[in-house]
């Protein structure tokens, strides 16, 4: 669902994958190896949205702005399920947790990690490598090398997903029973709790 708006047609790199159930409108530029999940709304109707290489915007996210503003997701930004980015700029290799809301004029420094269900107020400036949680979000500590390595590995998994989707995602009729030879899935990534428990 890609829409022209007032003469602006979205620009999407061929290696990116935009799910057919996502909506991308107007003045939007999407870079290499970007994943846009089903239900995501990327609305460049009143301003510009730039999604740099290697980002992912997961299911049911909204990216929008007040008129005349630009939203930029810098390289490898990772936007979790249901998050709202409204008129904010997200730094390189940032993790935005599920159902987080980041308001207008906020600037998130590179390699920050924002916990699920957090709220970043308008015009907040967050320095690089901070861990934030809560409503309103508060910095609770610096992001360690171990934490950012874990985040980066998860984002790299999403960076392979567009290619996998181009090759293997297709609409089908469902099966009516589980086949005996149904394959098992490999474990590609561990949760932070699993990593910490080792």
UniProtKB/TrEMBL annotation:
UniProt keywords, alphabetically: Transferase
Pfam entry (one): Hexapep
Protein's name in the database: Transferase hexapeptide repeat family protein
Keyword Transferase: yes
Family annotation (Gene3D superfamilies): Hexapeptide repeat proteins
InterPro entries, alphabetized: Hexapep, Transf_Hexapept/Carb_Anhydrase, Trimer_LpxA-like_sf
GO molecular function: transferase activity
Keyword Transferase applies: yes
SUPFAM superfamilies noted in UniProt: Trimeric LpxA-like enzymes
Superkingdom of the source species: Bacteria
């Amino acid at each position: 669902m890609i829409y022209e708006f007032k003469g602006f047609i979205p620009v999407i790199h061929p290696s990116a994958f935009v799910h057919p159930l996502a909506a991308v409108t107007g003045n939007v530029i999407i870079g290499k190896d970007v994943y846009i999940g089903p239900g995501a709304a990327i609305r460049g109707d009143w301003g510009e949205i730039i999604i740099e290489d290697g980002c992912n915007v997961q299911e049911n996210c909204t990216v929008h702005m007040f008129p005349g503003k630009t939203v930029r997701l810098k390289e490898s930004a990772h936007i979790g399920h249901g998050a709202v980015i409204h008129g904010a700029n997200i730094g390189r290799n940032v993790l935005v947790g599920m159902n987080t809301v980041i308001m207008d004029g906020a600037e998130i420094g590179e390699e920050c990690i924002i916990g699920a269900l957090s709220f970043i107020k308008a015009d907040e400036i967050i320095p690089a490598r901070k861990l934030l949680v809560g409503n309103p979000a508060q910095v609770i500590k610096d992001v360690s090398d171990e934490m950012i390595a874990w985040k980066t590995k998860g984002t790299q998994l999403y960076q392979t997903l567009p290619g996998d989707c181009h090759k293997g995602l297709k609409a089908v009729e469902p099966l009516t029973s589980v086949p005996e030879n149904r394959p098992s899935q490999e474990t590609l990534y561990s949760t932070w709790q699993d990593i910490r428990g080792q």
